[in-house]
Amino acid sequence: SIAILLYLARKFKTPDHWYPSDLQKRARVDEYLSWQHVNIRGKGSKLFLTKVMLPLLTGQPLSPEKLEGVTEELNVVLKQFEEKFLQDKPFIAGSEISLADLVALVELMQPVGAGYNLFEERPKLAEWRRRVEEAVGKQLFQEAHEGILNIKNL
């Protein structure tokens, strides 16, 4: 999915903020896109799979110990994300939204869909989410995440 996003950004000459031509800003985007695979995506998907999909497929509830361990793994990478990538900036690459922000928030919506409100006790993360939603458009954002946010209705 990252490769196709980069291809589309280049092919259709999207506004520069999505995948900046400035090499330092682009490096920040690339750094996050490389890091997120085994961190945000890996831990967020793992929580989603263990909390929602496995019980759905097996008919067995998840043990509280297993859920606690998976949740703690996600909490560790969320802290890293805030400290390393967000820091005190509005967006990952600086003052404008980029593909890095879009990818990050999409991945974080999986645990939210699983019932884990990871934004609740993280004001910096919650403010960043608000900025990303506003930049994309709240209606479009809700539309794009409707399926994942309603996954428990299966």
Write structural notes for this entry.
This protein has 154 residues and is mainly α. The protein has one domain (1-11, 22-153): Glutathione S-transferase Yfyf (Class Pi), Chain A, domain 2. It is 69% helix and 0% strand. It has 7 helices and no strands. It has helices spanning 2-11, 23-35, 40-58, 64-86, 99-113, 123-136, 138-149. Helix 2 runs parallel beside helix 5, helix 3 runs antiparallel to helix 4 and helix 3 (40-58) runs parallel beside helix 5. The longest helix is centred in the middle third of the chain and has 23 residues, at 64-86. It is globular, with a radius of gyration of 16 Å. Its EC number is 2.5.1.18. One of its GO terms (molecular function) is glutathione transferase activity. It is an enzyme of class 2 (transferase). InterPro entries: Glutathione-S-Trfase_C-like, Glutathione-S-Trfase_C_sf, GST_C, GST_C_Theta, GST_Theta. Belongs to the GST superfamily. Theta family.
